[in-house]
């Protein structure tokens, strides 16, 4: 398969070839070469080192300062820490005024990143977060039969693109234009996974549909010899076989000026600190676009009015208006000002879900039909408060009332979700999820995938060098600069019982809340 940049341009009409940045080749070596300084007195250095170690262990000083201290290692009798391995970074190499090719300097295996090539990869040796369990569930329809070429081809009907990995290289065949640049950032995400775990992804091909709602209906595949096509998308529901995959916004949502998830997490962490929970507005907050779904229009009926106070404060988000005003209102880190935040799905799952849960206000989660990949690991009363879909206003009023009476508990629920987002859903685990999902998927293959005739090779350079504006800067920000040094977390084994227990536990705590809610309204009505 030859790289074909002309084809590349046709394929990605949304890329432009102007504004190419010329990055210096090679790579910034980290850390900078150690400087041997002449030492006046050992004592001073020793004290300095001690202070430094205290600062480092308290997390105040970035570890990159380590190089300074490494030359004094011989006298650091108290230090047990080995010198961190020297790690190379591999920034983008864009050729000015020339077609950008996929450079071949990036390591082909994780062992190549450190200067010591014989050093084996260190094991993370931790269990994956609970939501990884669902990888097996999503792939269960093909567990017995495996995946054949015919099945994959049948998934093409609604796919926006086919993604192929052969010998560690990525190829894409584009079929139709997606909404905004969803396809571009999804492809970008998989390319970053390949930089994160180079040489560790098996040969595979997958069909990806970037639209909102699942389309592989279970009821169409009940009979014998009817095998569903494996189709990847951002969400699914309990009646569908679509395989869920992280959405584009983890690498940034350029059209809405929402930064890559790794950066947003940092911003929200800061935002959470800004107002103490108890000092926040004691109402339920929501800001969004109500036009996308009837259930959202229904929610707006619960806004505070002269007649009713359902303990909510609801606002309409107009992205066009936001754009004009420079996205001042939509700063995610500035939205943790209320004790409670409402989540409601839109036409399908909503990208806003993770930003709402990351805020350490308690999430009031309106029962949803659609699930993304991580929400299945979260539980009512532990990470959020369940809200009825068919009686939102009464349900919300009770939830806020309960929270204001049980502030410690409400605060704990908000913090648990926030910690889940910061820890279990940090980018390292998003890559681990993609890694395990694609690995398990590839294990099911009954044939050896080959590069299709219509496909072009893609890499970070062929995408980012041709991008411009916010698209380009989000790619630069979310670029994986070097392979990870640790192996993926340990995938929990296939355990249908554990899954059904989890489902039962969720249903039971939701029922519990509904019972409290009924009692509350019965008592109120009795009084009147
Ligand atoms: C960036 O690219 C888009 C489409 O790819 C194009 O419409 C837009 O004019 C470009 N902007 C600049 C500043 O070059
Ligand atoms: C483009 O790259 C080719 C080789 O990859 C080189 O021979 C040629 O001089 C380059 N052209 C420019 C304008 O840099
Ligand atoms: C390291 O990368 C080089 C090419 O850059 C490759 O030839 C070599 O086999 C790689 N080493 C390992 C251990 O994969
Ligand atoms: C490189 O790593 C191997 C395995 O961990 C170790 O035995 C060896 O001493 C290391 N070499 C250097 C120069 O650090
Ligand atoms: C909801 O009520 C608040 C307070 O009165 C108001 O500022 C806001 O605009 C209302 N939201 C909608 C969508 O009408
Ligand atoms: C909260 O406390 C008030 C005052 O004690 C009480 O009237 C109300 O029913 C309580 N609400 C809930 C949901 O516990």
Give the SSE layout.
Elements: H1 5-11, E1 29-30, H2 42-57, H3 66-70, E2 87-88, H4 134-139, H5 149-154, E3 161-166, E4 169-174, H6 182-196, E5 204-208, E6 231-233, E7 243-244, H7 261-274, E8 281-288, H8 294-300, E9 312-316, H9 319-324, E10 338-343, H10 352-358, E11 362-366, E12 385-387, H11 392-405, H12 407-424, H13 427-443, E13 456-458, H14 460-464, H15 469-478, H16 496-527
Parallel strand pairs: 5-6, 6-7, 8-9, 8-10, 10-11, 11-12
Antiparallel strand pairs: 1-2, 3-4, 3-5, 4-13
Helix pairs in contact: 11-12, 11-16
The chain binds 2-acetamido-2-deoxy-beta-D-glucopyranose (6 copies).
Low-confidence stretches: 1-80
Task: Please give the radius of gyration in angstroms.
Answer: 25 Å
What is the number of helical segments per DSSP (H or I, 4+ residues)? 16
For the residues shown, what is the average pLDDT? 83
> What are the bound molecules?
2-acetamido-2-deoxy-beta-D-glucopyranose
Distance between the termini: 77 Å
Number of strands: 13
SSE pattern: HEHHEHHEEHEEEHEHEHEHEEHHHEHHH
Properties at a glance:
528 residues, alpha/beta, Rossmann fold, 3 domains, six-stranded mixed beta sheet, five-stranded parallel beta sheet, 16 helices, 13 strands, 35% helix, 11% strand, binds 2-acetamido-2-deoxy-beta-D-glucopyranose
